[in-house]
UniProtKB/TrEMBL annotation, chain A:
InterPro entries, sorted: LysR_HTH_N, LysR_subst-bd, WH-like_DNA-bd_sf, WH_DNA-bd_sf
Family membership noted in the UniProt record: Belongs to the LysR transcriptional regulatory family.
Phylogenetic placement of the source organism: Bacteria, Bacillati, Actinomycetota, Actinomycetes, Streptosporangiales
Cellular compartments per GO CC: protein-DNA complex
Single Gene Ontology MF annotation: DNA binding
Name of the molecule in the record: LysR family transcriptional regulator
UniProtKB/TrEMBL annotation, chain B:
UniProt-recorded name of the protein: Serine hydrolase
Protein's GO biological process: beta-lactam antibiotic catabolic process; response to antibiotic
InterPro entries for this protein: Beta-lactam/transpept-like (IPR012338), Beta-lactam_cat (IPR045155), Beta-lactam_class-A (IPR000871)
Keyword annotations of the record: Hydrolase
Domain of life (superkingdom): Bacteria
PANTHER family in UniProt: BETA-LACTAMASE (PTHR35333), BETA-LACTAMASE-TYPE TRANSPEPTIDASE FOLD CONTAINING PROTEIN (PTHR35333:SF3)
Pfam families given in the database record: Beta-lactamase2
Keyword flag Magnesium: no
SUPFAM superfamilies found in the cross-reference section: beta-lactamase/transpeptidase-like
One of the record's GO molecular function terms: beta-lactamase activity
Upper lineage: Bacteria, Bacillati, Actinomycetota, Actinomycetes, Streptosporangiales
């Protein structure tokens, strides 16, 4: 089946909650639409809609899958749009695969506005692979996570964002205002792949250990399925996702630090890289809630006398 | 944001509780019957410490002055000089250190003899802390308990407890959760005495040894807790300041009365920390 097309039908029906209206919006008849939703439900093995009442309602499973479905549809739309863009200079850009779809879209739109003559070709690549791709010239510019060590590359302004913790909404910690890393004891941790983000991996786990959290197991992956299932927690920016609770981390111990990275190049790519770096800083501040990097406050460790008694 | 369910927490720990917490810098506050007059138990040592510092600031004496504490000066108590056997020569500030960090009753009475009730209470009145008064030494507290009960420690029978005047705020050292927290906030804002004295007092409160009450609610290396406990039969309390890694700081006072007369009630102690945590968490939302 064409899964993306079926997911698009699903998102439209979920918005309308009415098969007739959704069919009109999609420019098709109602019976084939119903059939396709049924096929999607078979494919996924869950019921997405409750059609028993007079009104169509999303099932719990449908509610949980809707966000992901929207994201997939948005990414595919963007892919097609990029493919449609005209010829001319191509700027090959690497972005981390877990960067929010909205942020990637804003990056592309912002860059197109200032550089209509340059086609942006984004690819989702983890930091470590971006560094290799930059060195090889496979991409012109990357958006990388720090800390990185890559001699010969240039880095733009570093932006930061305090990460919170993503928990299943049934987790007892979802009820408190702030979570300390030590409170996460006993929980497994979901992180981006270590091979792809070695610096961030090492730094995050070191902070966890220092603050009293040694995850029983570290899972590697991007989707939040394990978090939804209550099998793991993850660190990240605030998200609104059914079934998932986001809480700030007490003391902001986990910081996401990103910057643009590029290999010193010759014009005209060089000018495009500068423009991209400027657009990236603006977009990450406006769309991703990132801020200028400031001096990291010195971590104070309280000297409780009981510790030495 | 609705108030945390303090009653349910206290009930679950087998106690009745009173609480007040405030952001020291913004004044944002939360309370649970915060203005109820309550016995301070050993928390009266906090205004005594402040009054001692103010007298030293005024040049009445030097805190490094040494005094000799003999057996005749010894007030009963389980810690510090009260529990020692021999004469001790020690500076006034080290007596204060023992009075706060291990709640030494003998150190407290020696210092109260030096400072005087009047100076402590005049200071409290000048601070506008009208619900807080110091009227008894540790020795008088102890004598009152044995006189009321007709026997010495321990006091485990409900009939004995009903007779203890030290559990009646009208007849013993008293305060309210709000006023205890306000006094701590003044120390943390350098308003209670000279800035130098306030800094020293903060250091001493941070060296208090007990981990089971306020500090138990904040079991993190990067959160500092300074305070002073107070304990009498069925009464457990602590007031102090919790400092977060982002620099925000909260004055908190929690006092509980347990339904059971048992002396060892770790859940009642921990409820003080948990209630404080809930209050601070509420203030940070």
């Amino acid at each position: 089946m064409d899964l993306v097309r079926h997911l698009r039908y699903f998102t439209v029906v979920a918005e309308e909650l009415h098969f007739g209206n959704a069919a009109i919006r999609l420019g098709m008849a109602q019976p084939p639409l119903s059939q396709r939703i049924k096929r999607l439900e078979e494919e996924l093995g869950v019921r997405l809609f409750d059609r028993s009442a007079r009104q169509v309602r999303l099932t719990e499973a449908g509610r949980l899958l809707l966000g992901e479905a929207r994201e997939i549809v948005a990414r595919v739309d963007r892919l097609h749009e990029l493919a449609r863009q005209g010829e001319g200079t191509v700027l090959k850009v690497g972005v981390p695969p877990d960067l929010a779809a909205a942020v990637i879209a804003a990056l592309v739109a912002g860059f197109r506005e200032t550089n209509p003559g340059v086609r942006l070709a984004p690819a989702e690549i983890w930091t470590a692979d971006q560094l290799a791709a930059l060195a090889e010239g496979a991409i012109d510019v990357g958006l990388v996570r720090h800390p990185v060590s890559a001699p010969g590359l240039r880095f733009g302004q570093v932006l930061v964002q305090a990460q919170g913790v993503l928990l299943a909404e049934g987790d007892p910690l979802a009820g408190v205002g702030e979570v300390h890393l030590a409170d996460l004891a006993g929980r497994e941790l979901l992180m981006p792949p270590r091979e792809g983000e070695p610096g961030m991996h090492a730094e995050t786990l070191a902070e966890c250990r220092r603050h009293g959290y040694v995850p029983v197991q570290v899972h590697e992956g991007v989707g939040l399925g394990l978090v939804l299932a209550g099998a793991a927690v993850a660190f990240g920016p605030k998200v609104e996702l059914p079934g998932v609770a986001w809480r700030p981390l007490l003391g902001s111990p986990i910081m996401c630090r990103v910057s643009v990275a590029w290999r010193p190049a010759t014009a005209p790519i060089s000018a495009s890289v500068d423009d991209f770096a400027a657009v990236a800083v603006r977009t990450l501040k406006e769309s991703a809630g990132m801020t200028d990097e400031r001096a990291v406050p010195v971590r104070r460790v309280s000297r409780r006398p009981g510790m030495l008694a | 944001m609705s108030l945390p369910d303090f009653d349910a927490l206290f009930r679950g720990a087998g106690v009745t509780g009173w609480l007040y917490a405030a952001d020291i810098d913004s004044g944002h506050e939360v309370g649970h019957r915060p203005d109820e007059p309550l016995p301070t138990a050993s928390m009266f040592k906090v205004p005594l410490l402040v009054a001692l510092c103010r007298q030293a600031d005024a040049g009445l004496f030097d805190l490094s002055e040494r005094v000799t504490v003999t057996d005749a000066d010894r007030s009963p108590g389980p810690t510090g000089i009260a529990a020692m056997l021999d004469d001790v020569t020690i500076s006034l500030r080290d007596l204060a250190y023992l009075m706060i960090t291990v709640s030494d009753n003998t150190s407290a009475d020696v210092l109260l003899g030096r400072v005087g009730f009047e100076a402590v209470n005049d200071m409290l009145a000048a601070f506008g802390l009208e619900g807080t008064r110091v009227t008894q030494t540790c020795r008088q507290l102890d004598d009152a308990m044995s006189a009321d009960a007709g026997h010495g420690w321990p006091y485990l029978d409900a009939e004995d407890l009903a007779r203890l005047s030290v559990l009646d705020p009208a007849r013993t050292n008293r305060s309210t959760p709000r006023e205890l927290a306000r006094l701590f906030a003044m120390i943390w804002r350098d308003e209670a005495a000279s800035a130098e004295s306030c800094a020293w007092m903060r250091g001493v409160f941070n060296m208090q040894v007990w981990p089971h009450r306020l500090a138990s609610g904040f079991p993190y290396d990067d959160v500092a807790v300074g305070g002073k406990t107070g304990t009498l039969p069925t009464l457990r309390g602590e007031s102090g300041v919790v400092e977060y890694p982002d620099g925000r700081r909260y004055a908190v006072a929690v006092i509980t009365r347990s339904f059971s007369t048992a002396l060892n009630q770790p859940r009642a102690d921990a409820a003080i920390g948990t209630a404080a945590r809930m209050a601070v968490d509420h203030l940070r939302r």
